[in-house]
Design brief:
Chain lengths: 519, 178
């Protein structure tokens, strides 16, 4: 009899020793003469439980976690291969875990369940249903379905995806058009794009192919940041297999249309997550931001009409096509429809991926899902939406996760990253880092960003040292306003947001004083 | 899936070319293999760095001529991107995450410890040529920080103790290989 064991192969599981766990399980099975079928599945996104080992039993899959390599022998002795529940790490059926039960996983329905690279697994779990439906529709029919879903760009700008697609569709068809996937997931605290690419790569391929069919594009590029080598490997292999089975190539799903995909690697430039900078980079140039107009939808890659969407936007499309735009729009609130993949990170007890309908409060995310800080100390500040977004004090945590509600606070949801800090954080240092990061990553095109960020670091240093503090605070405020008003893109234009939020909500940290020691 | 078979740090050490291990012919091969692609320059630079370990300055005129671009164009692209190196790195490339999610989990203390332990700053190589230290702004492992990357392996929840053990292991295995 064969025993089937699942050991995740995503970056986080690997970073905590999943390969060694798998190795040890194989050794233990060999010693016990057990025939082992080892599946390297994706992660379910409950990262505090990684490496999460699952065993197939007659009663379904049961999980153990977090399993350190050193614990494998002990677990095997306690009956892991039989799914024996008598061990402290036994978790039972992980799909019934409250962390997952409270979610609405529309996009991330498959992660952790399937072998990411196994196309048969993908198809068995509802894969390519959306593409087959799209292949039978008119171009306008596909775009209309995406419009009906209310899907807004998940990269951070929240622009309606259907309108962007319509613009590209409306450009004359007798020319080359492109679909570009922005997989330059550079915001600290985000990993949802990575989870798509590492744990369910066919979903992205399917979403991009649907986009290609919708607008009449025959070529797509996935721009993956160079830090994500595993994503690149997974996508390359998945693209190869999808071509073999006719989901990509010259005759997509037998409808006579052509669509091909190529993965391109970035080279460690945060700014290339900005769409026009990304296009420059794809063209083989320095990643300098372009002025808009012209919009990339009209003059994008190599001057041609181009759909540029984030991984999560494109990954939402297969569900929308399979179940209808309305089914997706039934989730969410106001103008924020569908689900938001929240990435809970930083100093948090239960970090991971939380896909829920828009509208849940930030506090619910931090407390019900997150369970408080990892260190057990009081939580003090939360940065939502990446390094260019505001730090939120506790008084703002009851805000619903909704684009408009966050905009009202002068904050944003961005790409859905949530980074928690405990009370040892020095918010003055965080404000300084925002400027420092901008100085390192600015493309250099506009002065407020290139020079302003360097001056920002200097001014904050003087404030924190207590040098002419009041005047320097005025200067910092003016500098922030200049950067917001005078920068071409979000890098310079939004770097002041975290700084201003510290000035407003944590002004005491801009005084020179000591704080509790880091745990 | 066994994606990590190539991620053995020792294997990476063995395959790492030594300084000066390139020739104009190698550069021409890499350019020729990719120059038909639209926007080929980044793929070409990646291919050269993957093969040689860095992008030698002597490669610039060759790339420029073959792509019919100016040397300034090529140099400008290489210098824009943090990923491309123009000099060989040490035996192990060590990237330490400096971004917010890792800061929230003690990343700053880890940064200080790493620099003290190795006696180098960022973008420097240790005197024994074992480690080149570079900052990185997010490895996407943000729920399990602080994170570092050693060659192709990302490691999570790194404490100063865990880091010291890792350094010991890496330096020991390199000695064994010699």
């Amino acid at each position: 009899m064969t025993t089937t064991i699942y050991v995740p192969c995503d970056t986080t599981a690997l970073s905590l020793g999943a390969d060694r766990v798998a190795q040890k399980l194989q050794q233990a099975a060999a010693q016990k003469n057990i025939e082992l079928h080892l599946v390297r599945n994706g992660s379910r996104g409950l990262f505090w439980l990684e490496p999460l080992v699952e065993v197939q039993t007659p009663y379904g899959r049961v999980a153990y976690g977090p399993v350190e390599p050193e614990q494998v022998d002990e677990l095997v002795a306690a009956g892991l291969f039989d799914g024996n529940p008598e061990h402290p790490l036994f978790l039972g059926d992980i799909s019934q875990h409250s962390y997952l039960q409270q979610q609405q996983r529309l996009t991330f329905a498959r992660i952790g369940i399937t072998d990411p690279i196994c196309i048969e697994d993908y198809i068995a779990h509802g894969g390519f249903v959306g593409l087959k439906k799209a292949a039978a529709l008119t171009l306008q029919g596909i775009v209309d379905e995406v419009k009906a879903s209310g899907l807004r760009g998940r990269g951070g700008a929240a622009f309606p995806a259907g309108i962007k697609w319509q613009t590209v569709l409306d450009e004359p068809q007798n020319q080359q058009k492109y679909v570009v996937c922005n997989a330059d997931e550079g915001d600290s605290g985000t990993f949802a794009d990575r989870l798509v690419m590492e744990c369910d790569p066919y979903m992205l391929i399917e979403g991009m192919t649907i986009a290609g069919l919708a607008v009449g594009a025959t070529l797509g590029f996935i721009y993956v940041r160079s830090e994500y080598l595993l994503s690149q490997k997974m996508l390359d292999e998945a693209i190869r297999r999808a071509e073999v089975l006719g989901y990509l190539g010259d005759n997509v799903c037998g409808n006579g249309r052509s669509f091909r995909l190529e993965v391109r690697l970035g080279a460690g430039a945060y700014i290339c997550g900005e769409e026009t900078s990304l296009l420059e980079s794809l063209e083989g140039k320095r990643g300098l931001v372009r002025s808009k107009p012209p919009l990339p939808a009209i003059k994008g890659l190599f001057g041609q009409p181009t759909v540029v969407n984030n991984v999560l936007s494109l990954a939402a499309v297969p569900y929308i096509m399979a179940h209808g735009g309305k089914a997706y729009a039934d989730y969410g609130m106001g103008r924020s429809l569908g689900t938001l993949p929240i990435q809970l990170a930083g100093n948090i007890k239960h970090g991971g991926l939380i896909e829920i309908a828009f509208g849940a409060s930030l506090r619910k995310v931090l407390e019900d899902f997150g369970g408080g800080t990892f260190t057990g100390r009081p939580m003090r500040a939360v940065q939502v939406g990446g390094p260019l977004m505001a730090y939120l004090p506790e008084s703002q945590w009851d805000t619903p996760m909704d684009y408009e509600a966050f905009a009202k606070l002068g904050a944003g949801i961005g790409h859905g990253g949530v980074v928690a800090f405990d009370d040892t954080v020095d918010m003055g240092e965080q404000a300084r880092f925002a400027m420092e990061f901008c100085a390192v990553e600015s493309c250099g095109k506009c002065t407020p960003c290139r020079i302003g960020s360097v001056r920002g670091v200097e001014v904050i240093d003087r404030i924190r040292a207590g040098t002419n503090r009041d005047n320097n605070l005025v200067l910092l405020q003016e500098l922030c306003e200049t950067m917001v008003d005078g920068s071409l893109c979000a890098m310079g234009g939004m770097t002041p947001f975290p700084v201003q939020s510290v000035m407003k909500h944590f002004p005491e940290d801009l005084m020179a004083r000591s704080r509790p020691v880091e745990a | 899936m066994h994606m990590s078979e190539t991620a053995d740090p020792k294997a990476a050490v063995m395959s790492m070319p030594v300084a000066g291990d390139w020739s104009p012919e190698i550069i021409r091969q890499e350019v020729a293999a990719l120059q038909h692609k639209p926007g080929a320059l980044l793929p070409i630079l990646h291919a050269i760095q993957d093969r040689v370990g860095y992008v030698p300055e002597g490669a610039v005129p060759i790339i420029a001529e073959m792509l019919q671009q100016t040397r300034a164009d090529i140099h400008g692209v290489i210098s824009f991107y943090h990923h491309f190196r123009t000099h060989p790195s040490g035996s192990n490339l060590l990237e330490v995450c400096r971004a917010e999610a890792c800061q929230a989990r003690g990343g700053r203390a880890l940064e200080r410890h790493v620099q003290e332990r190795l006696s180098v700053g960022y973008h420097d190589t240790t005197a024994d040529n074992e480690f080149t230290l570079v900052p990185v702004y997010c490895l996407g492992n943000c729920a399990c920080g602080p994170s570092i990357r050693v060659n192709n392996d990302i490691i999570g929840r790194v404490t100063p103790q865990k880091f010291d053990q890792l350094v010991d292991t890496l330096t020991t295995s390199v000695l064994q290989l010699k």
